[in-house]
Amino acid sequence: MSGYSPTLSSLFYEIALTSLLEIFYNTENGIRFVIRVRQWQLDVALARTERITNQLEASLPNATRVLDTDVTQLQHDMSAILRLRKEDLKKAERRHNQTLLFCVLVVLAAILLSWVLKHRGKKLFELLDIE
């Protein structure tokens, strides 16, 4: 091994091991966070952001499906409520018409009774023996 000459990759590996502490604290100039550390922090933040974005994009179809189901259920419920309200309105209108018809019949009966009593009241009283 007397003719051993380190290759470029082995030198880089040795430099990387010795300079690991320099990444976190550079003793030469006293800078705690060198550019490589800041870039590493940005890369970690970007990776985290991309992971969250991918999770949100993956959950988007499921959320859309759930919302579509909810909207469909709401439309079904609203149409059922509308149908019930229409039926209630028809029943109320029928009751109103029946009440109105009853009132008209009572008024007509009262008019007829007053006319009978006015024109034929004496004969009616004589027939019934009412004095």
UniProtKB/TrEMBL annotation:
Keywords from the named record: Membrane, Transmembrane, Transmembrane helix
Domain of life of the native organism: Eukaryota
Chain segments annotated as transmembrane: 99-117
Name by which UniProt lists this protein: Uncharacterized protein
